[in-house]
Structure formats: C-alpha cells, structure tokens
Amino acid sequence: MRSTVLALGAAALLGAGTVLADDIPTCSLDKKCPESAPCCSQYGQCGVGAYCLGGCDPRMSFSLESCVPAPVCQDKTYKMDKASMSKIVDIGKYLGDPSKADWVSQGEPVNYNDNTLLTMPKNSVGTVLASTSYMCDVKDEIDYEFVGTELKTAQTNYYFQGIPSYVNSGNITITDSWANWHEYEIRWTPDQIQWLVDGQVGRTKKKSETWNATANQWDFPQTPSRVQLSIWPGGLASNAKGTIDWAGGPISWDHEDIKNYGYYFTTFGEITVKCWNADSGPGTNKGKSYYYNSYRATNDTVVDSNKRTTLESFLGTGTDMDKGKVTGTKSSATKSGGAAETTLPNSIPGAGSAPANVPGGGSGTSCEEGGNGQSPSNANNGVRTTGSVQMGASALAAVVGFVGLMFL
Ligand SMILES: *[C@@H]1O[C@H](CO)[C@@H](O)[C@H](O)[C@H]1NC(C)=O
Ligand SMILES: *[C@@H]1O[C@H](CO)[C@@H](O)[C@H](O)[C@H]1NC(C)=O
Ligand SMILES: *[C@@H]1O[C@H](CO)[C@@H](O)[C@H](O)[C@H]1NC(C)=O
C-alpha cells in the first residue's frame, strides 16, 4: 500500500466538478444571461446569489454590473491545518465577505494529519477550493496540472480569456508527484509567468511572446484572479474524448485508494499568496474591490474601487445587492429571510452532482492562475489534480506557492 503521499500545489481552475442542471439558462460570449437570472457562473449557467460572486463572468452576464465587485488580493499564508478548516466554507453559505472565510468549497475537503485533503469519492466529481480574495472572472488562467498516469510530470498551462489553445502547455519533469512533498510556485508579473518546482524555475513564458496580431492584443493573462485547487475525474465517460485521453484514460472507481480510503485524494500543506501591487490603478490593491468597465476585459478595463463585495442573501445580484435582506425580528427573519431562501434552483452554481464540463482541461471555463496541483497515483487512470493561482489585477501578478502532497 502506498502510504504516501504527495503534494501538490495549488491553483486552480475550475474545474472540478460541477454538475450542470438542464433547466438553467446557459451563457457564453454570444448569449448573455436574461435579466431574471443575470449572472453567468464559471460553469456557463445563469443565476443569482452565488452565481454573481467568484467566477461570475461580466462579459457573459446580463450587464457589466450584474456580477458583484470582487475583493482585492491579500498577501497571506494559508496554513492548511486542522484549525484552518473553519475558514473553508461551503459555496452555499458564502455571501462575499472574505473576512469570514479563506476558501469557498464544493465537494469534500477533509483534514488529515494537520493537512487538508481534497477528496474524490466514488462516482463524485471531486472537490474544489477557491480563495475568497481576489476573484477572477474573465477566464484568464495559469495552471499546474497533474495526471494520475504521469507520475513524473507537472504539466503547466495558461489561458487568455478562456480561449482554448493547445500550444500553451509545457511540461516540467519532477522526481515524483506523489511520494514526497513538493513546493509548486507560479510567479506571475506583468511581463512574464514562471513556474517553479521546489525553488527551481521549470518554465518561463514572457508576455512579449504572446502578441496576437489578428486581435491586436497580448494573449497573456492580465486580470485579477483567485487561487483554485481541485481534484476531478478527467476520465469520466461524459467528458470529451480529448479530455479523457489527456487524463490518462477512463477513470477506475475500483482503485485501491477507493477501496482503502473511500476516495482518491490530494493533500495540501500550506499555500502562500503574495500580491503584485501596481503603483497606479488598476491593481494597487489599496481599495476594497474591483470591477470591469468594458467587455474587452483586458488589463486597462479593470477598475480599482471601494464598492462592497457582499450580498444580503442568495437572492441578490450586483445590481440589487440588498435583495432578500432580513429586516425586523429574528423570528420573522427566519420565516421570510434571506439566507433561508438558498433553495432557488439557480442561486448556487455547480450544486448537484453530475459531471461537469471539463475543468481545467482547457475548456476555457476557468479563471485562475497560478497554483499547482497534483495527481495521483500510479494506475490512477483518469484522475487529475489541478491547481492554479491567480492574482493580480490588471497587470497584476502574484506569486503563489503551494506545498502539497498527494496520497494515492
Ligand atoms: C506533456 O506530457 C504529456 C504526458 O506525457 C504529453 O501528453 C504532452 O504532449 C506533453 N506536453 C508537451 C507540451 O510536451
Ligand atoms: C488571436 O485572436 C483571435 C481572436 O480572438 C483568436 O481567434 C486566435 O485564435 C488568436 N490566435 C492565436 C494564435 O491564439
Ligand atoms: C496593460 O497592458 C499594456 C500592454 O502590456 C501595458 O502597456 C499597460 O501599461 C497595461 N495597463 C495597465 C493599466 O496596467
């Protein structure tokens, strides 16, 4: 039995699992959300409440103001120990105040030996943790990805506004992704992205190499982001064939880890985020929040602001943040009030449990940068861990480092 574990990093992408409900309106660049469900979630579906918080894409929402302004970056080291589990809050309980939670979760994070495990029980879609400060929206993303059948490779990738591109990836050879702890770091500045493993630069991508003459812009991640960590079943039959192949083949739910522990998992020991603070806006991180003032969603369209970032209930949106506010006595509040109404079908994105669209995998659904992740054990076909870190606004960048292990 393999007792060990390994580590990984962090960042995130979207990914992990989500289930898409059939009866909820979908959204894309060509199809914005309706006024009644104005916010486009990172999974491409329209709703209110948590749909308007982290991951809400202003370009695909009813209006640029539909998404709630996102909290700015904070320098911080997140211990992933037992005490910090109280700072991980389920997405169905978080209304946008980063002082109340460090991470928003979907799935089943677990504490083990004073580290945090992201788990993926049989037939689940895995677990995702997204940082609460510095939300990302327009699908710029920087990743580390670890495949269960490639134990000596840390794959790196980046996306600009979620545009699928199959030439942006690069591999870093590592000694193992599961037997020893490793530190995965993304150093993202306005001019370049560097991926470091255990302190050694494994890959560098310069912004100067990303000019797109057709679009007349730099296809380089350049907007505020958050850190996302996830483990997800890339090898599910419902995923695209390219994703299944990339994940190492169809997933096996009979692996010894499932038998021995009840889930596949990846382990995180500590995550550090260091913000890039621009001298002038956008990206100073001096205010409270930021929002976009143009559908172009490039670095110069990010606005530093002091607008509030919190909703009063899961009925709210960026243009009606007080909706569902509880007034009057506590008892009447319980009857009519805000948070009690989280049962609307489309107020919590990704709730459910079916497999989702391809996370991280290049589907262009995510929005993060940095990070690292890792994957699993040998013979774990079809399992992937993804990490990304994001930071910075506008040309902001951030340095993120993660230490993690994975057991498989
Ligand atoms: C990275 O490694 C994977 C797995 O071995 C391989 O499929 C992929 O083509 C490699 N990517 C690059 C850019 O070399
Ligand atoms: C350049 O931008 C256009 C328009 O967004 C996009 O379709 C194309 O794929 C980009 N080119 C490359 C090489 O990524
Ligand atoms: C946005 O990026 C452009 C191109 O790299 C750069 O010249 C400009 O200074 C950046 N603007 C801001 C506000 O960061």
Automatic annotation (TrEMBL):
Question: GO molecular-function annotation terms?
Answer: glycosyltransferase activity; hydrolase activity, hydrolyzing O-glycosyl compounds
Under InterPro entries, the record lists:
Beta-glucanase-like, ConA-like_dom_sf, Glycosyl_Hydrlase_16
Cellular component, GO annotation: fungal-type cell wall
List, in alphabetical order, the GO biological process terms annotated in this UniProt record: carbohydrate metabolic process; fungal-type cell wall organization
Give the stretches traversing the membrane.
none
- UniProt keyword annotations, A-Z: Glycosidase, Hydrolase, Signal
Question: One Pfam annotation, family name?
Answer: Glyco_hydro_16
Q: Which Gene3D superfamilies match?
A: 2.60.120.200
Keyword Signal included in the entry's annotation: yes
**Which parts of this chain are annotated as the region Disordered?**
314-385
Which part of the chain is the GH16 domain?
A: 19-255
Signal peptide location? 1-21
| Compositional bias ranges of the Polar residues kind | 374-385
PANTHER family xrefs: GLYCOSIDASE CRH2-RELATED, GLYCOSYL HYDROLASE-RELATED
Q: What is this protein called?
A: WGS project CABT00000000 data, contig 2.18
Q: Which organism is it from?
A: Sordaria macrospora (strain ATCC MYA-333 / DSM 997 / K(L3346) / K-hell)
